[in-house]
Amino acid sequence: MNKIQSLPPIFVTLLIQFIVYICLSFLRPELHDYLGYVLPLFWLMLVQGALSASITFLLRLPYWWVCIQVVAPPLLVLGMALDLPLWVFPVLLALLLMIFWNVVINRVPLYLTNNLTVDKLDDLLPKKAGLKVVDLGSGFGGTMRQLASKRSKQHFYGYETAPIPFLLSWLLAKLDRRSHTEFYFKSFWAIDLGKYDVVYCFLSPVPMPDLYAKAVGEMKPGSLFISNSFTVPNHKPNRTVTVHDARHTKLMIWKI
Ligand SMILES: C[S@@+](CC[C@H](N)C(=O)[O-])C[C@H]1O[C@@H](n2cnc3c(N)ncnc32)[C@H](O)[C@@H]1O
């Protein structure tokens, strides 16, 4: 990871937009002279987005930041053109933050385990009654709910710190009376992994080394640590299973 990648991405991306905006402001008169007409604001913001995204890409920030950089400036102009009331922008930002909180704070985006991967997990998990399985960063809780629906004698838990995904997972678990799933609004760094027989996670490369060290330090011998897609540098998994989905998802399994 380079120095820039270790800075908070929200800070780096805003800085890139700011620098591009300043440069474009200086170049704007030259550009208009060259073109012979005044470039409409929307087109200017498309250029702003494209340049900011290119720099973000060159700095090797994760791809979702590149996408955000492209769409943010033209969307802002579009919002202004639609003459939306001013409160819409902070409300939208707050809603987005409440869903994608951990992209900003922990560099873990929100994407969901697909059905084929859940089926594969179902094949892999031990069958014994009373088994406790936890999803670290449980999103909307779908993975644990689907597994719970197939395994009535086992227990499924999730920890999530993005408010809206957590609330939905919690609500759906409460509404389903037969549910043997529990969701907590708590960072997985603050829990004891020793209580669980299987720890599942689908995060990003960033937390994996520290999370693996936590798992090894806390989990019982014989329990399983399963990571969807992201490996742990210098620690080869005991087993890697490929799912036959479009992205050839890899499930890496370490036996503690
Ligand atoms: C890639 S999503 C995976 C969602 C779900 N586990 C699934 O597989 O469908 C990662 C989730 O981890 C959450 N997350 C990231 N860091 C966290 C932390 N320290 N504590 C709890 N949740 C966290 C994010 O908010 C996000 O919802």
Describe this entry's structure for a reader.
Strand 6 (239-242) and strand 7 form a beta hairpin. The protein folds into two domains: 3-84; 115-255, Rossmann fold (3-Layer(aba) Sandwich). Strands 3-2-1-4-5-7-6 form a seven-stranded mixed β-sheet. It has helices at 3-6, 9-35, 41-58, 63-81, 88-106, 115-124, 142-150, 163-175, 208-218; strands at residues 132-136, 155-159, 181-184, 198-201, 224-228, 239-242, 250-255. It contains nine helices and seven strands; from the N terminus they run H-H-H-H-H-H-E-H-E-H-E-E-H-E-E-E. Helix 2 packs across helix 3 (41-58), helix 3 (41-58) packs antiparallel against helix 4 and helix 6 packs across helix 7 (142-150). It is α/β, with parallel strands linked by helices and 256 residues long. Bound molecules: S-adenosylmethionine. S-adenosylmethionine is lined by residues 101-102, 106, 108-113, 135, 137-139, 142-143, 159-162, 165, 187-189, 202-203.
Query: What would you call the structural class?
Result: alpha/beta
CATH superfamily of the largest domain: Vaccinia Virus protein VP39
Please provide the ordered H/E string of secondary-structure elements.
Answer: HHHHHHEHEHEEHEEE
Judging by the overall fold, what is the CATH architecture of the largest domain?
3-Layer(aba) Sandwich
Our measurement of the CA-to-CA distance between the termini, rounded to an integer number of angstroms, reads 27 Å
Q: What integer is the average pLDDT? A: 90
Annotated CATH topology of the largest domain: Rossmann fold
Major sheet details: 7 strands, mixed
Q: What is the overall shape?
A: elongated
Q: Strand percentage, roughly?
A: 5-15%
State the helical fraction: 40-55%
